[in-house]
Design brief:
Number of helices of chain A: 31
Helix content of chain A: 55-70%
Low-confidence stretches of chain B: none
Shape of chain A: elongated
Number of strands of chain B: 5
Structural class of chain A: alpha/beta
Order of helices and strands of chain B: EHEEEHE
Low-confidence stretches of chain A: none
Strand content of chain B: 25-35%
Shape of chain B: globular
Mean pLDDT of chain B: 83
Radius of gyration of chain B: 11 Å
Oligomer: heterodimer
Structural class of chain B: alpha+beta
Strand order of the largest sheet of chain A: 2-3-4-1-5-6-7
Number of helices of chain B: 2
Helix content of chain B: 10-25%
Largest interface: A-B, 50 and 39 residues
Strand order of the largest sheet of chain B: 2-3-4
Number of strands of chain A: 10
Distance between the termini of chain A: 72 Å
């Protein structure tokens, strides 16, 4: 099957065209070895033949500035690359030909068969003369509007005609047309002799990009020495070349225009006067973000409840039909529960990405990045990090995934690392149980409710931790990419809803596929830890609980709760809790809290459930009853209450900072592509949690 | 408009910030540090450091 690639500048309408051409038969994956998203899909031509269509990342020129652009240059120069296209479909926006032809001119030097699609993104644009473009580029040109369904068929036949007939005109614009400087000529010849690459333009690109170009890899050190030795100035030569291409095509483009649109962009649109306004802009942004936050926080809770309810109904049903066997237990409490734990994130992921994609496609996001660039930059982050951090207030999982849109690798990594510091919705139940032990429910200055103030303090602490640690990491992590902001602000447009939905669907699917596995495995491990004990420990615990229950003449339900409590204590999780007790004693925690810390690694809210089991409380109204039980709990001396303000505060601080969430770890691993960063993240947040819990405990007691 | 030579020059050129075109600062970022540059056919947001690479001749004092 033929490999066909779409190339063009960002905002050329390439992605819209891609989704129109492939329909729902597209798939998003990663280019191997890099975190650059790859969109590919089958394109059925009118003849019935199929080709594999890949949407290459938007690129401004073959002198790249981002990992995405470097990838494109690598693919197009290396005919051994698995993604090397048999045929190129170049997409340019008719109203932006002054820029969109630059890359086309450069790519023409690579001698890959190609056709050119001049897309009228704005239906009001006057059609251009295809013949003039054809004679400039020496490739077939068609002028269409990707918005018109009939034009999509035109594009398909156009591609078919040109691929199947091998109908691409031979390039007349080889480098011979470009007046090579002696220094350029010298290095190109030297490279040709050394490497056997006689293709002048590829050799020139090797001279420019010897550091990272795949075809230059075997000669990397030789090239470096050679470029340093020869009077070849890399930057100067790039500028010269770009200027040359401009001088070739600008006269043609100007000849195409019938009306003078000069000065069209010399004023802000009315929308931008408000959207980027120094005062209203940020207000609008926070209003939009509040809406996004509200949507993931509140709306997602309904489908999440259905998913949780559904899974617990399925477990109950399975428990009633499956024989009491350890395999059934594993299936119900390990696998089914783990699956529920994966799927429960889907509503939040879907809602967040629907909204983010809408903002992105409409053109709003680049304005937001522009407005907040300065603030976020102080912390080593990016304007887009703002969106991730705010989304983290609902859940770090979709937030970390949304950092994908940050193109600078370092800024993206920092955003991923610090997002979990923002207090997410799963911390709320933990805060709710504990906050009452820190301060009494009284009013402060008549207007503030004391627990409410503590709540706010915890949220602020999270934000502070995120920003400060981003700053610290930004000083430690070496930057591969200089930070810059040269961002095109595309005209606002109506988002292509199908595009928005497809990319949202792909996000959810990739979460289930990749992070799901890790979550499932950890959830089975945690289940095993809390349901098995060494030897016959669990049996002994059951007998003990039953004896005690007979002695105290307890009802059936209370007996069951007592059995669960004793069995949890006797399990491996219980042993681990006791085992780590010496480590957590300085924080004011006992082994019971230790158990809850271990089990709540599955998800923070599990803390409440585990504490309920430890204190033999049923599932109904657990928070209130749990608080009562905890109030009565005494330390080993039997006099001092266990949950004094110091312990409770220490525990709260621990939960503000600690990465008590296996799903976050799984998603960080998925997004960074290795276990290195989740491990660093876990350790860093753990140490911070431990130290601040300790400080909190010491200060309060 | 002229572009000073620096690591970002090819980038700026490729994004349509080209010699002899006209440009105008349209909006400063709310918290400073960056601005929107209006060019003949499109608009680009840039940091002050990057704007420093662009040398202009004053054509008009103020665009109404």
């Amino acid at each position: 099957m033929k490999n066909v690639a779409l190339v063009g500048n960002p905002n050329s309408g390439k992605s819209t065209l891609f989704s129109k051409l492939t329909g729902v038969r597209q798939k998003v994956s990663n280019f191997p070895g890099v975190t650059v998203e790859k969109k590919s899909g089958m394109l059925r031509l009118p003849s019935g033949d199929e080709v594999m269509l890949t949407d290459l990342p938007g690129t401004y020129s073959l002198f790249p500035n981002s990992p995405e652009e470097r990838l494109v240059v690598n693919i197009l120069t290396n005919d051994q690359d698995p993604h090397y296209p048999d045929f190129l479909v170049y997409v340019a926006d008719v109203s932006q030909l002054e820029r969109h032809l630059l890359l086309a001119m450069q790519i023409r030097q690579l001698d890959i068969p190609m056709c050119f699609i001049a897309n009228m993104s704005d239906l009001a644009t006057k059609a251009v003369n295809a013949t003039a473009l054809e004679s400039l580029l020496q490739v077939p040109v068609v002028v269409v509007s990707a918005k018109k369904p009939e034009d999509i068929n035109t594009v398909k036949s156009f591609i078919q005609d040109n691929i199947l007939r091998g109908n691409h005109r031979v390039s007349e614009l080889t480098l011979s047309g470009y007046p090579l400087q002696p220094a350029e000529k010298e290095i190109i010849e030297a490279i040709g002799e050394k490497t056997g690459i006689r293709h002048g333009y590829k050799a020139k690109l090797m001279a420019h990009h010897g550091q990272w170009l795949d075809i230059a890899a075997p000669y990397k050190s030789w090239l470096e020495a050679e470029v340093a030795k020869k009077p070849f100035h890399n930057m100067e030569s790039q500028v010269r070349e770009v200027n040359y291409w401009y001088s070739r095509f600008l006269p043609v483009v100007q000849g195409l225009k019938t009306d003078t649109e000069q000065g069209y962009q010399s004023r802000l649109t009315n929308t931008d006067k408000i959207v980027t306004h120094p005062v209203f802009g940020p207000i609008l942004f926070f209003a939009v973000m509040f809406f996004v936050f509200q949507a993931i926080y509140a709306w997602a809770s309904y489908p999440m409840d259905w998913i949780e309810g559904g899974f617990s109904a399925v477990s109950t049903w399975l428990e009633s039909v499956l024989p009491a066997h350890f395999l059934s237990e594993l299936f119900i409490h390990g696998i089914v529960a783990g699956l529920g734990g994966v799927l429960v994130f889907i509503p939040q992921i879907v809602i967040l990405f629907l909204l983010i994609n809408l903002l992105e496609e409409s053109g709003y996001m680049s304005r937001a990045v522009f407005m907040f660039d300065q603030i976020m930059r102080k912390f080593g982050l990016n304007g887009r990090s703002m969106v991730s951090l705010i989304s983290s207030g609902a859940c770090a999982i979709p937030a970390i995934m949304s950092a994908r849109t940050i193109s600078n690798p370092k800024e993206r990594l920092l955003t991923i690392l610090v997002s979990p510091f923002i207090s997410c919705s799963a911390r709320l139940p933990v805060y709710a149980v504990l906050v009452g032990f820190v301060v009494p429910d009284v009013m402060v200055w008549r207007i503030f409710n004391a627990p409410g103030l503590v709540f706010m303090g915890l949220y602020l602490l999270g934000i502070l931790a995120a920003l400060v640690s981003a700053w610290v990491f930004s000083k430690i992590i070496r930057s591969g990419e200089p930070s810059s902001l040269v961002l095109e602000l595309p005209a606002y447009k109506n988002p292509d809803l199908r595009n928005v939905w497809l990319s949202t669907r792909d996000k959810a699917m990739s979460f289930v596929r990749e992070a799901g596995k890790v979550i499932l495995v950890i959830s089975v491990i945690i289940w095993a830890l809390s349901s098995f004990g060494p030897g016959r420990a669990l049996e002994t615990a059951r007998v003990q609980a039953e004896n005690e229950s007979t002695e105290r003449a307890l009802a059936e339900k209370e007996t069951q709760l007592l059995i669960s409590q004793y069995q949890l204590e006797a399990s491996y999780a219980g042993r681990l809790g006791k085992f780590i007790e010496p480590v957590i004693t300085p924080l004011g925690f006992d082994w019971k809290i230790g158990i809850a810390l271990i089990t709540s690694f599955a998800a923070r809210e599990v803390f409440v459930g585990t504490m309920a089991t430890i204190y033999s409380i049923g599932q109904e109204d657990e928070t209130a009853t749990l608080r009562e039980k905890m109030k009565k709990e005494k330390k080993q001396d039997g006099i001092t209450p266990m949950y004094n303000p110091a312990t409770a505060l220490s525990l709260l601080l621990f939960y503000v900072f600690a990465l008590q969430c296996m799903s976050t770890l799984a998603v960080t691993r998925k997004e960074t592509g290795s276990w290195k960063w989740p491990v660093i993240q876990f350790a860093f947040m753990g140490v911070l949690a431990y130290v601040s819990a300790w400080v909190g405990y010491v200060v309060m007691s | 408009m002229e572009i000073m030579e620096g690591p970002l020059t090819p980038r700026l050129l490729a994004m349509g910030v080209t010699p002899r075109s006209t440009c105008v600062i349209l909006q400063k970022a709310p918290f400073g540090g960056a601005a929107i540059l209006g060019l003949d056919h499109h608009q680009i947001a840039m940091r002050d450091e990057e704007l420093a690479y662009i040398i202009v001749d004053l054509v008009k004092d103020k665009v109404s």
